[in-house]
Q: What sequence folds into this?
């Protein structure tokens, strides 16, 4: 670069000297020498163009080299960072706090200064992903507004949504990429509008997401990576599950699924939530059981039913709720009869109905078409009729399991088993 600049400077000085010579000539001499002057002007223009091309090429090559050097240096830096953390780990020193400090510093001080297309952003996001994966830590700041997550369709900041790829009773789901490394689901809540109230409610939920992660590490509960603001709707971010919901999976792999193991693992996920201090009621189990790549169930969107109630001010079972019409068959009867508070006993009831759906492949009370009639039947204590078809029985719905389901559907709620008792029976 210095040599190219020196050449430009030398050429400019040479042109200046020639122009000074022409200035000293009288009018007659300039007239006589006009052909010579024109040729020298053309030569000067050509020389300047050549210098400019040389300078551009040199700067381009130097920039390319700088980018290569930057990538190499950051690879070395990353290796050195992990080596240092491994040494601390080997010495028995606490590394989690060190990792937290590093990740927090990157999120708070570095990411806000970078924009998409900046080579450094890719390297920084990769570093955060490597740290999160190796040390099983969520990002310290779960409000993901500095490039941590982008919409997958076009790689833009996930601020504008078009057509969802999936949906549930309450949510629209879009594809995204997290820390430039893994596919995620961006879930917008239809009844939410972006604003201080909804974002503050998400911020209150962050502590719960982190607490559940620290206990479970994604074994039974689908992690929540964070939240952010979409166009008109806030969204939450979770790992994408290619196998879809438990009903998608059991229909596709019917002959390969161990149904008894499946429902036991679902119960273990509920046990994680009910075992928290204070206990956490899921509130919407039916729609939120996804299947991992290894074929294990993961409870997703825990606590969001309560968030929706808090922000909208309407119980999830209200007749005006977009969710209620589909979910009536899974909701405990007391939720329609004055006590609409989501609770652990209601989760147990919903678990029983979900097990029935998984084993039969049909909605509970499948012989009753009208949802309002189902509410009336529940009010009078009518439970689902036991299915006796060969397929359901072959999946493992025996006398013991049916007795457990009847227990889960008992009223009043105090008669139902705890999740620990459910697991003992399973």
A:
């Amino acid at each position: 670069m210095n040599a190219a600049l020196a050449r430009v400077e030398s050429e400019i000085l040479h042109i200046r000297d020639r122009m000074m010579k022409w200035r000293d000539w009288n009018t007659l001499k300039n007239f006589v020498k006009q052909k010579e002057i024109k040729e020298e002007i053309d030569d000067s223009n050509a020389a300047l163009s050549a210098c400019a091309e040389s300078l551009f090429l040199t700067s381009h090559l130097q920039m390319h080299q700088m980018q290569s050097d930057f990538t190499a240096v950051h690879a070395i830096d990353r290796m050195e960072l992990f080596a240092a953390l491994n040494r601390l780990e080997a010495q028995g020193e606490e590394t989690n706090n060190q990792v937290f400090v590093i990740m927090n510093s990157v999120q708070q001080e570095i990411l806000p200064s970078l924009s998409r297309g900046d080579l450094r952003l890719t390297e920084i996001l990769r570093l955060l992903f490597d740290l999160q994966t190796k040390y099983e830590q969520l990002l310290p700041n779960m409000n993901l507004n500095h490039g941590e997550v982008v919409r997958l369709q076009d790689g833009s900041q996930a601020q504008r949504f078009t057509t969802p790829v999936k949906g549930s009773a309450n949510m629209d789901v879009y594809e995204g990429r997290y820390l430039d490394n893994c596919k995620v689901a961006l879930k917008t809540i239809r009844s939410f509008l972006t604003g201080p109230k909804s974002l503050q409610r998400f911020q209150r939920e962050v502590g719960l997401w982190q607490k559940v992660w620290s206990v479970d590490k994604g074994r039974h509960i689908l992690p929540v990576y964070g939240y952010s603001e979409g166009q008109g709707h806030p969204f939450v971010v979770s790992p994408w599950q290619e196998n879809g919901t438990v009903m998608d999976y059991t229909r596709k792999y019917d002959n390969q699924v161990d149904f008894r193991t499946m429902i036991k693992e679902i119960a273990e996920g509920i046990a994680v939530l009910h075992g928290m201090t204070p206990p956490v009621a899921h509130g919407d189990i039916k729609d939120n059981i996804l299947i991992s790549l290894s074929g294990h169930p993961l409870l997703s969107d825990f606590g969001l039913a309560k968030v929706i109630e808090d922000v909208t001010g309407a119980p999830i079972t209200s007749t005006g709720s977009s969710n209620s019409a589909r979910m009536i068959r899974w909701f405990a009867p007391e939720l329609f009869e004055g006590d609409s508070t989501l609770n652990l006993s209601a989760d147990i009831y919903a678990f029983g109905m979900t097990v029935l759906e998984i084993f039969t492949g049909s909605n509970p009370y499948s012989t009753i078409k009208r949802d309002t009639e189902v509410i009336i039947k529940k009010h009078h204590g009518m439970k689902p009729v036991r299915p006796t078809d060969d397929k359901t029985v072959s999946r493992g719905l025996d006398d013991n399991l049916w007795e457990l389901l009847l227990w889960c559907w008992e009223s009043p709620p105090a008669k139902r088993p705890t999740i620990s008792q459910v697991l003992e029976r399973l």
Remarks:
- The chain has a mean pLDDT of 80.
- The first strand starts at residue 149 and ends at 151.
- The CA atoms of residues 319 and 325 lie 7 Å apart.
- The first helix runs from residue 2 to 24.
